[in-house]
Prior knowledge:
alpha+beta; 2 domains; 4 strands
Amino acid sequence: MEYEEESDSVRIIDFKTGKNEEPEDSLQLPIYLLLATNTQSKKVSGASYWYLDRDDGLTEKKLPDGKQSFEKVYAIARRIKLARQINHFKCPKDGCYAAGLTKEF
């Protein structure tokens, strides 16, 4: 988070360590927007990615719509809740390694 004194607002800065561009449909900015909006007293005025393996500084990103972000994240959260309840996850390829799960849990 970066405080912008002139607008009395905050900006989201997401540090990126990988070499690939963040996909447009990534959930990171919608999640960060929801977190910042619901935990900060200041308005969220913008967002940037900072690719640490580059020398070009911050990459400005358009803030996602707050209502659409909530609906998108909430829909996925409901699907995860259901999958946990019925103990059934379908993971891509050879498993959900990031989550520590095998192919079908």
